[in-house]
Amino acid sequence: MHTTAYHPPRGRGGFSLAEILIVLVIMGIAAAMAVPRLQGLVKTSSIQGALNRVAADLSYARIRAIRTGSRAQLAIASDGKSYRVIVDPSGATPDTTKTVRLNLDYPDLVLSPAPGVVSFDSRGMLRTTGGVNVVRATKQGRTDSLRVSGVGMIYRDY
Q: How many separate domains does the chain show?
């Protein structure tokens, strides 16, 4: 029994200029639709990264308060673009253990309340007298926050 082999039609192979242009136009439209979503994702990621850094430094301040047996605080600067971790702020020699300038890594991000202080006592409990328990980070109209409970636990609200 004889079977005929399949032979592709003869002619030139490849794509025409019109086909390539149509594919490029479709890819351009898809990219134009994706860019605003990516910008929003970058903004959200930036805010969450900054709040993760603040949460870590709040934990650090709390641990320092417990270890040293004195008060410790995270003090937000008046411009909202930096903060300091201070151990024994009311003592004879307050010790600034850490200074963080957020505007270097997170431009256009502002912490509030500015100025503000989150303070822990020697047991690691939140001191509410004159202090705050919510820190907000805002960048280009988007705001996320973190809260500190009375027992010093830190919760992210995003």
A: 1
Amino acid identity at 95: D
Query: Is residue 12 domain-resident?
Result: no
- Return the exposure string of 3-26: e unless at least 16 CB atoms fall within 10 Å of the residue's CB, then b: eeeeeeeeeeeeeeeeeeeeeeee
Is 66 a member of any domain? yes
Q: Which residue has the higher pLDDT, 40 or 15?
A: 15
Residue range(s) defining the domain that contains residue 38: 17-156
pLDDT tens-digit series, residues 83-142: 999 998 777 777 888 888 988 888 888 998 878 889 999 899 988 766 678 888 888 888
Q: Is residue 1 part of a domain?
A: no
The answer to whether residue 11 is domain-embedded is no
State both tokens at 17. Answer: 């200029």
Q: What is the DSSP letter of 124?
A: S
Q: Indicate which CATH number applies to the domain containing 126.
A: 3.55.40.10
Cα distance between residue 75 and residue 72, in whole Å: 10
CA 86 to chain CA mean position, Å: 23
What 3-state class would DSSP assign to 108? coil
Q: Is the pLDDT of residue 26 over 90?
A: yes
